[in-house]
Amino acid sequence: MVKEFKINDIVQMKKQHPCGSFEWEIIRLGADIKIKCRGCSRIVMLPRSDFEKRVKKVLLSKANDAEN
Q1: Distance in angstroms (rounded) separating the CA atoms of residues 55 and 68
Q2: Based on the structure, what is the number of domains in the chain?
Q3: Of the four, 2, 24, 26, 34, which is 20 to 30 A from 41 by CA?
Q4: Contact of 35 with 27, CB cutoff 8 Å
Q5: Within a 10 A sphere around the Cβ of 65, how many other Cβ atoms?
Q6: Which secondary structure element, helix H or strand E, spans residue 50, and what is its range?
Q7: Name one Pfam family in it (predicted).
Q8: What pLDDT does residue 45 have?
Q9: Strand ranges inside 1-68, DSSP E
Q10: Range of the structural domain that residue 51 is part of
Q11: pLDDT tens across 28-64, in order?
């Protein structure tokens, strides 16, 4: 099953970032996914396969909010 992610979605990761936040914003999609921590603004790039294993759930889909 392929998970659908969109730019500007807010996702919750399984493990906490050292700053204390679980929330990340997707800022780039492709073979690699770039995410930005909502707590400290650190930017991390992960291969899509690693990202899909580490993500717990989509908290807020900003792309859907823009359509409504």
Answers
A1: 25
A2: 1
A3: 2
A4: yes
A5: 9
A6: helix 48-54
A7: DUF951
A8: 97
A9: 10-13, 23-28, 32-37, 43-47, 55-60
A10: 10-62
A11: 999 999 999 999 999 999 999 999 999 999 999 875 5
